[in-house]
Amino acid sequence: MKIGFIGLGAMGRHMAANLQRAGHELQVYDLRPVEGFPGQKRSAAEAARGCDVLFTSLPGPSEVEGVSRQILPEKPKVWFDTSTNSPATIRRIHSTVKPHGIHFLDAPVSGGPKGAESGKLAIWVGGDPEVFQEYVSILKTLGDQPLYVGPIGAGTVAKLAHNAASFAVQAALAEVFTLGVKGGVEPLALFRALRQGASGRKRTFDRLAEHFLPGKYDPAAFSLKLAHKDVSLAMELARECGVPMKIGAIALQELDEGMRRGWAERDCRVAMTLQEERAGVDVKVPAESLREALAE
Fold it and tell me: In the chain, N or C terminus with fewer CB closer than 10 Å?
């Protein structure tokens, strides 16, 4: 295929190179010359001209919106935006380009520059499911795990949720490591110990399928009262060591509220339902659907 690719940064240059290696004819554009791509086009419009598929990999919403205005007259048949974008911007661009016959899909990626280079990327796609199926083989040239998430913007929502989780976990890990080391454990020994625990042995999001997603909190695998006791002791240690624990304090507040509601003997994950109440949303997944998802 003739493929347009706009944005040859840390991620884009590797994704474009993988398309090139797969034998596709590339028309690329970036604000600066990038090694390995002779004959770079002089504008985004030139890169999009006459192409079967267009990919963009840009810093953010304003850059993608700016490119949308430039490429609109070229009318690429299909456009995948792999940038981490704003759902509102994605939906606005979609409504603008759709009357011009352009199929626009959001397709943010996860895996970092190394994943982009090796082709080991998650690609979360929102938009027309038929267009996704038609071009999934091209997406597999970029990443080994393309996944259709839902209507336009859904892929971007998934990416933002994923990254928010990543950085929340990062902040929590910074807290617990400073607590452990200041409490007297050598850093490498602490790293080894934490990796051996229940949380260390299992992929973070896999644990959601045990209690939160099916809404199963009885009987308890680990009771709320035990979780409350453990976090209370950790916070006591933090005070003794002079370690600030903002995230730990929030976790304890959630467990405190669960105890006040009389959930002491229920599974500790029942405290997660407090956020469902605040957000006004039910995330429960039917057991059969969950089994199918886990089997994929």
Answer: C
